[in-house]
Amino acid sequence: MKHTNIFREYLKDHYYEPYTSEIKTDELKILRKELAGKLEKSSVKVWEEPVEDVELRSGDGFDFSSDTVRFGQEGDLSSEEQEKLSLALKSLMPWRKGPFNYYGREVDAEWRSHLKWDRVAPWLPDLKNKKICDIGCNNEYYMYRMLPQDPWFVLGIDPMTRYYYHHRLNKKFHRDDRLNFDLLGVDDLNLFPRFFDVVFFMGIIYHRRNPLQTLETLAGAMKPGGTLILESSGIPGDDPYCLFPEGRYMQASGYWFLPTASALVNMLNRSGFHKVEVFENFKLETHEQRQTDWAVFYSLEQFLDPNDPSKTTEGYPAPTRIYIRAVKK
Ligand SMILES: C[S@@+](CC[C@H](N)C(=O)[O-])C[C@H]1O[C@@H](n2cnc3c(N)ncnc32)[C@H](O)[C@@H]1O
User: Fold this and answer.
1) CA-CA distance, 6 to 236, in Å (whole number)?
2) What is the pTM of this model?
């Protein structure tokens, strides 16, 4: 069978090569071949064509140290290149994380992710020379924000093929061997035993049907003494409880266990972590997650009861956001 160009491109990326003796390379290679098949589905064409059409650039300016992840300047591109870029950016809508600025074009995403980064940054260990995993990295916003701290190796994983195209678009403008993306899911981290110094696990645990198993998988992929940054949707309250919705929560079916902060602390303490510290716990507000021109679907405001925003439209407590730092035992 003749494979598509994108299938071959994905498999050409051997980011794991320097680490073959530390990770389960044979299994990873087999898995990656399977995952490459996802890129041959016709559904990816909607991103593939516009993104691949954007020309490779080098030597343009960038800034990853401010709220907006910025590539190039407006005047760097010809009008034809601007047009191609514009089509690629639009094809990747809705933009969930940001803000980004591509050659003068501001992409105002649904989430103002710099607020999350600003809360996390003071709690990070020194990232210099660290091996880092960003689980559910989405469009790589946080990975770029890590770069000024000079990490050794950053692997962003996200099983959604659309984010592979975000990665390919970003790479058109800024290629840095330290930043890598793979279509892996969190369960695949068992292929990286005791490998990472720092793991970011933000915005995912409440989407897991087996959160404890997931935490144990994370612990297995981390070096003893390594740092986990965990961020989660949760519910208010001091006692260690989880809300388990009957059906939908915030109009979505993928919410399972929504913990209080103390429940999350207990979960971590019983899954291979210690020195667990909650550093933020607050009610999520609509200035942080909202509809924009780049994310036109329903957002937080529409998920809350208009007469009582302390509740979701289903009548459950509105979400809090809990931020935790924990150390792998
Ligand atoms: C709510 S977003 C959070 C994104 C980002 N980590 C943040 O905190 O802003 C959840 C992300 O997890 C990704 N995801 C879904 N299933 C996953 C899995 N099994 N393993 C890793 N990531 C997953 C989604 O594609 C999405 O990008």
Assistant:
1) 45
2) 0.98
